[in-house]
Amino acid sequence: MDNRDGDYRWEHRHLLGLEMLSAEDIRFLLQTAVGLEDVSTRSIKKVPALRGRVVVNLFMEDSTRTRSSFSLAASRLSADVLDLSGSGSSVSKGETLRDTARNIEAMGVDVIVCRHALSGAAMQLADAVSCSVVNAGDGQHEHPTQGLLDLYTIAQRTGREDFDLSGLTVAIVGDIQHSRVARSNIHGLLKLGASVILVAPPTLLPRGFSDLGCELCFDLDEALPRVDVICMLRVQFERLTRQAFPSVREYVSGYGLTERRMALARPGTLVMHPGPVNRGIEIEAAVADGQQSTILEQVTNGLAVRMATLFLVSTASGTS
Ligand code: CP
Fold first, then answer.
1. φ and ψ at 254, to 5 degrees?
2. Inter-axis angle of helices 97-105 and 121-128, to 10 degrees?
3. First CA to last CA distance, the chain
4. Nearest ligand 1 atom to alpha carbon 115
């Protein structure tokens, strides 16, 4: 396993967002993930790539998929793994994120994987420590490994082995305003050549996204026949500071992905969701569990993508 290919060399010591990566960086990371995918299907699911290194999961917000995926990814690379959360650590006694991270680093840590409610938390951490930092979701900013595993899944399902997504149109539907997944997906999809339509009620769709090159749309039924991939997003009720729509029933009526509504989409249109899913709100159970759904494939692919991420940031020579 290597962090170079011809003239290209991976140089990012941190993974803070897809906005900061080039298309070449993203493709190289995804190609590295392809090479690691089969480790998880072997009888002994381990390679020695990060033997002797230490990865710390510092999760200050709840997580099921990302946290367990990073733990497994680090184990499969033979790294030592330490799991820390806000409750149960000295953060509950008032210790700052910076002090927590610097104390953990003092034990000889190589990578800190951080999830935090504050947008920009991972960047602040990267400035405070000298080990690598991987952003596992910071507030409404980015969730880069979710974006990467979504790109990986789209490329795999559409046969784009070179990770060139030109000609594909992807709708991202739901609570765009509060979604770090939407932001990472937008940067990644546009860099790899896809077109992006953002679909949401006007109160959950910041107009600034059109400046990035996304189409904005308030009518899901109008967008559905035009897309190859539908990425559904959870309404983040915990981050809503004011009422964004009259009622959940009206939200479901306008933006819920139902079997009836799926009849408007072309056959073979992929249905994605980063999880956690609110069944019956943004997506009907029959659609979430249906033939076109990639929800569990996304989780499976996340493992290889996070193995590639940990390997590359740990072996990078650059300073950013
Ligand atoms: N997709 C995602 O980030 O899920 P978790 O919050 O469970 O990690």
1. -90, -35
2. 40
3. 22
4. 8
143 is annotated as an active-site residue: yes
CA dist 62 and 161 (Å) reads 34
Class of domain 144-295: alpha beta
Going by C-alpha positions, the residue among 204, 148, 168 that lies closest to residue 29 is: 148
* Distance from C-alpha of 129 to C-alpha of 51, rounded to nearest angstrom: 22
CA torsion angle 312 313 314 319 (round to 10): 130
For ligand 1, what atom is nearest to the CA of residue 64?
7
Q: Is the CB of 275 under 6 A from ligand 1?
A: yes
Model pLDDT for residues 60-114, shown as the tens digit of each residue = 999 999 999 999 999 999 999 999 998 888 988 999 999 999 999 999 999 999 9
pTM of the prediction?
A: 0.97
Model pLDDT for residues 138-187, shown as the tens digit of each residue: 999 999 999 999 999 999 999 999 999 999 999 999 999 999 999 999 99
Closest C-alpha to ligand 1, atom 6: 63
The domain defined by 18-142+300-315 carries CATH number 3.40.50.1370:
yes
Neighbours of 51 (CB within 10 A): 11
115 is an active site residue: yes
Query: Where do the CATH 3.40.50.1370 domains begin and end in the chain?
Result: 18-142+300-315, 144-295
Q: Which of 12, 27, 141, 143 is catalytic?
A: 143
Q: Which of 57, 58, 65 to mutate to test the pocket of ligand 1 (most atoms within 8 A of CB)?
A: 65
Give, for 105, the enclosing helix (H) or strand (E): helix 97-105
- Looking from the CA of 149 toward its CB, the CA atoms found within 13 Å total 30
313 CA to centre of ligand 1 in angstroms: 21
